[in-house]
Amino acid sequence: MMREIRRGTMVGILIDQNVDRHKGVLVDLFTKKAYTTDGIARMALALRTNIHPVFIFRHPEKKFHHTLRFGPAIPMDLNAPRAEEVVRLTRCCNEELEKVIREDPTQWLWIHRRWKTRPPGEPDLYREVR
Predict the structure, then answer these.
(1) Total domains in the fold of the chain
(2) What is the C-alpha to C-alpha distance for residues 97 and 89, in angstroms, rounded to an integer?
(3) Which of 4, 79, 89 is nearest to 42 (CA)?
(4) CA–CA distance, 13 with 128 (Å, rounded to integer)
């Protein structure tokens, strides 16, 4: 991915997926803590490039027709401590996702257990679903 970004190719990474504790950071998503991939923030910092959220919307009447919408660029603070900036950038990505989902919840394809990985000591949110 890094090579493609350096070449100027746009790459996409899904941020709304559950990740293990060691593969992400814990940030809010709809008021619940969610382990979220920090790869987007780490790549952006390594390449010194802003993050550009992109969302895809299904056309309400035309099957297989979609629209891409670009959210506002998420700028980085190169003077901030790296670990703190990774968390901040990841949180900003989730905030942009929340805005779009709130706008039209029917567009969010949520078929997985987004909050599956819990912080130590917190109960399993899906225990009763099994």
Answers:
(1) 1
(2) 13
(3) 89
(4) 30
Closest C-alpha among 92, 98, 97 to residue 74:
92
The parent domain of residue 119 ranges over 2-125
Give the whole-angstrom CA distance, residue 109 versus residue 72.
22
Query: pLDDT tens, 69-114?
Result: 999 999 999 999 999 999 999 999 999 999 999 999 999 988 889 9
Exposed/middle/buried for 112, CB within 10 Å: 0-12, 13-18, 19+? exposed
How far is it, in rounded angstroms, from Cα 26 to Cα 93?
13
Residue 47 maps to a domain: yes
Euclidean distance between CA atoms 23 and 36, whole angstroms = 8
Burial of residue 6 (number of CB atoms within 10 Å: 0-12, 13-18, 19+): exposed
Strands of 7-91 (E only): list them.
24-29, 32-37, 54-58, 66-70
Q: Which residue has the tokens 């029917």?
A: 106
pLDDT reading at 123 higher than 60 = yes
Tell me the pTM.
Answer: 0.89
